[in-house]
RASF3 protein (Bucco capensis), 214 residues
Amino acid sequence: QDVQKESEPHVYLSKEEVKEKIQSYNSSVTDKLKMTLNANGIYTGFIKVQLELCRPITVQASQSQGRSAHSNNETAFYLPEGCVNTLHISSTNTVREVIEALLKKFFVADNPAKFALYKRCHKEDQVYTCKLSDREHPLYLRLVAGPRTEMLSFVLREHETGEVMWEAFTIPELQNFLRILDKEENEQLQILKKRYAAYRDKLEEALGGVWKPG
């Protein structure tokens, strides 16, 4: 169950506490994605972000893969489900900067304002998700939670329908979305027609057996 949860208050750590937590974090890492503490107190490390996007994204046509609708040099297409990307960031990077880096890595042309980063936590057999504010620092959250993704993971999603900034979409993007929706609607319609045709054939066959003279 995916339950929405309010953001938790930020707890600031002293330099010594950060150092101790990084040492503890690195001792628990199993995938070599360790954190590094610099002399200036800034630390760097890795986060993994799962992309759970329901709507198509717009990329340069030469970079696109999968189901798509073309418009000039750009393509709107759906990312595969469960796509996970690893980013190397610093403790100063904000949520907004992480979103921008992810989109840049995938050559996405969409406005970053269309997307939001969530943290997902597992507690007491419940899965909680919490939308992060643009000013939060994902690497700090990773450090505090530890390296285990079942304790904390990051998810990129579109803003909820009521939160979508429609002015951030361009006319070609909206036209591409409509083309994809029309195509999918037609595909679903054909599937339904075949299903009901097969059902009708079975009914007619059954009726023929019932009314067949003995």
Q: What stands out?
A: Residues 63-71 have pLDDT under 50 and may be disordered. The helical segments are 15-28, 95-105, 138-145, 171-211. Residues 121 and 152 are 5 Å apart (CA to CA). The first strand starts at residue 2 and ends at 4.
